[in-house]
Design a protein that fits this description.
The chain has 143 residues and is α+β, with helices and mostly antiparallel strands. It has one domain: HIT family, subunit A (2-Layer Sandwich). It has three helices and five strands, in the order H-E-E-E-H-E-E-H. Strands 1-2-3-5-4 form a five-stranded antiparallel sheet, with helices on one face. Strand 1 and strand 2 form a beta hairpin.
């Protein structure tokens, strides 16, 4: 895609700090470096978000995640954990519309990265949860 910054990075038109590349995947440091080693993994084929993936491309991209995560862990022994983040569509904070997975190393509670999940547990009965699960399950089985 012509106007896509990540496609331009893959093509070499925009410089990046590459950490991994193969025939289907490109991984590079995020220039924001939320924490030291913050890495993006992207498919070389332009797909907008998770809803745009075909099974084979998803398998290729997501299979590289543990490999790069383990490399981060070895590169930064002081790392205590890692957040894996994938934002899809603007409402979910996607800002570059070429699918990408953030690997954000965590070095402690004060490393300037946090995620907050609200809880609505009290709003759902067991019956509500069973109905939600069945609704999703029906769609999964349809493919």
């Amino acid at each position: 895609m012509e106007d896509c910054i990540f496609c331009k990075i893959i093509a070499g038109d925009i410089p990046s700090y590459k950490v991994y590349e193969d025939e289907e995947v490109y991984a590079f440091l995020d220039i924001t470096q939320v924490t030291k080693g913050h890495t993006l993994i992207i498919p070389k084929k332009h797909v907008t978000d998770i809803f745009d993936y075909e099974d084979t491309l998803a398998a290729a991209v997501f299979a590289r995640v543990p490999k790069i995560a383990k490399a981060l862990e070895k590169a930064f022994p002081e790392m205590e954990g890692l957040n894996l983040v994938n934002n899809n569509k603007e409402i979910a904070y996607q800002s570059v519309f070429h699918s990408h997975i953030h690997l954000i190393p965590r070095y402690g509670k004060d490393d300037d990265f946090s995620m907050h999940f609200g809880s609505h547990m009290d709003e759902y009965t067991e019956k509500d949860l069973a109905t939600l699960a069945e609704t999703i399950k029906a769609q999964v089985s349809q493919g």
